[in-house]
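Try it yourself: sequence plus magnesium ion, in.
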Amino acid sequence: MSSNRNAALNLFLSRPKMNLERENRKISDYFAENVFTDAKLRAYLSHEAYKAYHQRLEDGQKISRELADQIAAALKSWAMENGTTHYTHWFQPLTGSTAEKHDSFFTLSSSGQAMERFDGDALVQQEPDASSFPSGGLRATFEARGYTAWDPMSPAFIMDIAGSKTLCIPTVFISFTGEALDHKAPLLRSIEALDRAATGVARYFDRFVNKVTATLGWEQEYFLIDKAMYYARPDLMAGGRTIFGRGPAKGQQLEDHYFGAIPERVYAFMVDLETECHKLGIPVRTRHNEVAPSQFECAPMFETCNIAVDHNQLLMDLMDRVARRHHLIVLLHEKPFAGINGSGKHNNWSMSTDTGTNLLSPGKTPRNNLLFLTFFINTIKAVHDHADLLRACIASEGNDYRLGANEAPPAIISVFIGDYLSKVLDAIEKRAEGALNEEEEQDLKIDIHKMIPDVMLDNTDRNRTSPFAFTGNKFEFRAVGSSANCADAMMTLNMIVANQLSGFKEKVDKHIQDGEKKDTAILRELAVCIESSRNILFEGDNYSEAWEREAERRGLPNIQTTPDALDVYGTDKARKLFAAAGVMNEKELEARHEIYLEKYIKKVQIEVSLARELCLNQILPACLRYQTELMANLAASRDSGLSTETVGELITIVAENIDAVRKGLSELDDALGQAHEQPTTRERAQSYCKDVKPLLQNIRYHVDKLELFVEDRNWPLPKYREILFNR
Ligand code: ADP
Ligand code: MG
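Structure, out:
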């Protein structure tokens, strides 16, 4: 057998049992022990400083230099007591992972005395060497540099890597003129926009509401494979997915993985990961198998949107690190294996008030139900009006394989709300169109109340195929890719809902000014929203072809590729919306569009190089060797007067596919040349998508054929069955 593949298999089979050093304390004893929580801040800070800090946060004011110095001193004391030597500004550049630049607390005083220092300046602002992060031309246009700025809403934490501890300070990454260069800055702005708009509307119902916070609970899917297999597959290593490979005889047809016991090795990994998560304050709670072999999921309790986004980024870092300790590799790519389900990251989203109300939770009284319906219907309307932006915010090269592959939500954005709520919307629409008198209004509210059962939360009326589903007390945005930063999806959702709510409030206020009663005005505007967003509601099977046809009839976009989906960022409608919400100005939006297109191009380029290299260095040589063996057999058979039919046929198949691969590679070169010559980034991305990618697919077809026909021991790459069924 091919030496790499053989070595990988032997390594895998000889893995020692992992002896887990179990944490034997209760989770609550060590939860967030590596986080500078609010309680710790209070303990390390003077009472006045602590109060001043919270006041500033509440008022959205800047933290003074003096206060920052005090907080820095508190952070340093805590961090050093816990054995920390370095600190870093931790941020989320558009490259897709997190970035850090470690500095030591250690320094020399002016008199040459060794000491540890960390002051307000170091806490508040840093200048990473930013030239290597994508900026879509922003830094070039404005300033040569970017800087990281402390996000006081997300607590600092200690990362323990190989026994060396670093204090990590969550930050946003912006240019010197204030343009966002990361995922977090626009997210924070969208959280503010939603707070402003939603608070205004929530006050119709409860005048004590002062703040509305977006909440997020993500569910992270991933594949877990043996490290040896990973290193024997250059495509997995460099591209995160197998660009060649035939599906195994036993794939996921039996769906026996989903309900099966978690394999012991995986279990050890999960327990280890959860312990690390808990120490860092990530409240993970559930773990289970997923549909595909070697696919799993973990999910936390929901948190405020900002913190949940940070925690998901942190989780992805941790997963990688912890898995390697167990000789495993986590694959976060949306589609690592063709023909087998890919991975997503469901984003459960809601809004909650500082008075403790979940705005998407059906209420116990008619009035509370009107509050719920107001936020529920406005969200639907926002999704209806800006489905193109929701499609764009989940677009990535990897997610293109998944959306619409009959396993994941399709590229068509629609909303599922279930039977009960469909009936409620019908009732409101029918009866609130005309003006309601007081009695009618009261009746309608009571009717609505009767129709929304208390058991909403446990209702089994769920549709697993919908990209955007209401699940009892939250919406679940399911089309997000597994490797994505949740920030983009959350930023978009917060922004479109904020925009919708402020428009809604303007109209309702106008009716009230004109003398209409508040609830009547609200009901009437809700009816308008329902009527104009009917198209986006779909209760059926989103995977079916019938839905594709139906969606087309309704005029809903079905955008299959990332370059097409991103086009929306170039429209006037999007520019105005982003600017009005204060989330991104025109230049920032343009830069982001450019960066995402470039990222797409790079991903395809990497796959092209991988395909070429794998074909030329491994696959074709192995196939030719096998062909030579067959030729020898043919000659011998002929000499002995035996039938040469079988061997002859095999030679033909192998030779034809070898030729097709070679031809495919040269066509690929031509297409690459053509793509490269396109004048704009957008056109280059389009060409990589439409001219280059189909050729890769064509080469794959022939390589996968060869995998079937070439003798197993000759095949150079670990096969799907070897990668996926590793217990
Ligand atoms: P599923 O059936 O899809 O597995 P669960 O009911 O277990 O879903 O919840 C999935 C996620 O939804 C969890 O992460 C949970 O914390 C989150 N969630 C629950 N309530 C809210 C909320 N109000 N806002 C945001 N996320 C929420
Ligand atoms: Mg879910």
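One thing you can check immediately is this: The first strand starts at residue 84 and ends at 90.
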